[in-house]
Specification:
The chain is α/β, with parallel strands linked by helices and about 550 residues long. It contains 18 helices and 22 strands.
């Protein structure tokens, strides 16, 4: 079995992937149906967003039973078939574990509400302050305060996310045991990968205090005890088995913590998602705002994380897209004028870095933001809350909608575009979320027949498996002051890879550092014209190119 350094993960948002029964909602049988397509890509692991029992207040991240499959998505038998079919096709399954909070519909919370002291200690309950205000001034990440009255008691419960998602009390050893039981249950079902949702916020302090900034992030994020809990999780569950791949979703983390979570010596996780590079189009750190992305900041962040994680023996999960992010091609590219170049530039930038690449469904065919014009077309709870807040701040409906169109999480959740049939071949029914209007042009069948993006992804996936300089090499950023090109070098055992990525829509002339222009090189892969590396090198709009150097040929 190859190491996770050589693997590529494909993320499936089950609700939007493929509907097998015409109810408008994607399901496990739909994923099974598309196993041949996924296998043809060459990906190694399928990360599937939560399909556990849930009231679906936050699209399945509000879990009411961790070991039950929501009938919306199918049955346990379907899941077992999926694991088997994936394995037959040399693919493995990664599940999404939401262990920071449960739905308030979960049996534990319901028992706590009835007054059961044991289960009340499963959650974080506090008395309001003497003036009647909330226990702390923390803000929920979904807007509003992070506290809500707990039944008809005098206490309130903490919810860092939606009000229907109550944070678990990881300081209680019983809670940790329950969490480990859940992970072991799925390991026994043949699962070999786990993505742990917001795992670096599980370690709250024993005494909770007000935040100076009124938000509170620093008081519950990356606390030292979180590392202890994750290490214990490793020892009690996946660490007991060979070759289990784990990734932590890390909210607002640092390079230092990121390296600590993923350094194999610490026995915590295989790798982590950090999100700093996806906030470079936030005006004054505010997501619900409009500004052109800051390329120099993007490049600096990618470079800092690559450099820091290389030096400290950490490991990055590499990605542009997921179910919570707008489509990267619409954010950082120009799908209207440079569709193929934008899509392949983004793919190559990420896939040739040091880390494990993640492909989000539809990315491999260039799916874009849908650009819905009506608020009613959006389903996401966070989007509707944000619209209300923007209007309250004095923005007009048009101004608020312009921001929603760019920033809503539903941008990435529109149904997968399989064909030019009705509803893009996703469902024979009424889809739970509208399909993007460009599906007749952008779909799998069209891409397989005439497109070049899908085959480019396949080539990048193949190269990672074949070339140690990609899967194992060190990283070094170069030309860091250049205003439109992100360039870097990968190095392994006398071989080098020079990667040039141009993020804008006009051609640019580049002076190649002497250490490369004086060496013999081989053109490896690029989305433009195949040519030799010259001391002055011209990159076309959104062009990406990689050159390979072997010390033996340059002796």
């Amino acid at each position: 079995m190859s190491t996770f350094h050589e693997k590529v993960v494909y993320q499936i948002y089950p609700k939007s992937f493929k509907d097998s029964n015409g109810d408008g909602i994607g399901d496990l049988k739909g994923i099974i149906e598309k196993i041949p397509y996924l296998a043809s890509l060459g990906v190694d692991m399928l990360w599937i967003n939560p399909f556990f029992s849930s009231p679906q207040k936050d699209n399945g991240y509000d879990i009411s039973n961790y070991t039950e499959i929501d009938p919306l998505f199918g049955t346990m038998e379907d899941f077992e078939v999926l694991v088997k079919e994936a394995k037959t096709n040399q693919m493995e399954i990664m599940l999404d574990m939401v262990l920071n909070h449960t739905s308030i519909d979960h049996e534990w919370f319901q028992k706590a509400l009835t007054g059961d002291k044991k289960f009340q200690d499963y959650y974080i309950l506090r008395e309001p302050k003497s003036d009647g205000s909330h226990p702390t001034n923390w803000a929920s990440k979904f807007g509003g305060p992070a506290w809500e009255p707990f039944g008809d008691t005098a206490k309130e419960y903490l919810h860092l996310y939606d009000v229907s998602q109550a944070d678990l009390n990881w300081r209680n050893p019983e809670v940790r045991k329950e969490a480990y039981k859940v992970v072991n249950y799925w390991l026994n079902k043949g699962v070999t990968g786990f993505r742990f949702d917001v795992i670096n916020v599980i370690g709250k302090d024993a005494v909770l205090s007000d935040a100076i900034d009124g938000v509170g992030k620093s008081l519950y994020t990356d606390r030292p005890i979180a590392h202890e809990y994750i290490h214990e999780l490793n020892k009690e569950t996946f660490g007991r088995k060979e070759a289990i791949m784990t990734v932590g979703e890390m909210s607002s983390t640092t390079i230092e913590n990121g390296a600590a979570y993923s350094n194999p010596e610490n026995e915590e996780l295989s790798m982590l998602f950090s999100f700093h590079h996806l906030k470079v189009d936030y005006l004054d750190s505010e997501k619900w705002s409009l500004m052109p992305f800051d390329f120099m900041e993007l490049k600096q962040l990618l470079n800092d994380w690559q450099t820091g994680m290389t030096e400290k023996n950490g490991w990055n999960a590499l990605f542009w897209n997921n179910h919570d992010q707008p489509r990267a091609i619409s954010r950082f590219g120009d799908p209207e004028h440079h569709f193929y170049a934008s899509a392949t530039l983004q793919a190559q930038t990420i896939h040739l870095l040091r880390g494990t690449p993640y492909i989000y469904q539809g990315e491999e065919i260039g799916m874009t933001n849908p650009g819905f014009s009506e608020l009613a077309d959006y389903v996401d709870i966070e989007t509707h809350n944000a619209y209300t807040e923007l209007i309250e701040k004095g923005l007009s409906s048009n101004e608020a909608m312009a921001i929603i169109k760019e920033k809503s999480r539903d941008n990435s959740r529109t149904p997968m575009q399989w064909s030019n049939e009705l509803n893009a071949g996703f469902t024979t029914g009424q889809p739970w979320l509208k399909v993007a209007e460009n599906y007749p042009q952008i779909n799998v069948e069209e891409e397989q027949a005439t497109g070049k993006i899908l085959s480019y992804y396949k080539k990048l996936i193949q190269l990672r498996k074949e070339m140690k300089v990609i899967s194992e090499g060190n990283y070094r950023g170069i030309l860091l002051e250049h205003p439109s090109v992100y360039a870097y070098v990968r190095e392994f055992d006398g071989t080098q890879l020079l990667v040039l990525n141009h993020f804008y829509g006009e051609s640019v002339s580049l002076e190649i550092p002497e250490e490369f222009s004086n060496q013999q090189s081989r053109y490896l892969i690029g989305n433009g014209e195949k040519r030799e590396l010259t001391p002055t090198f011209v990159l076309e709009p959104y062009e990406t190119v990689a050159f390979y150097f072997n010390a033996e040929n340059n002796g």
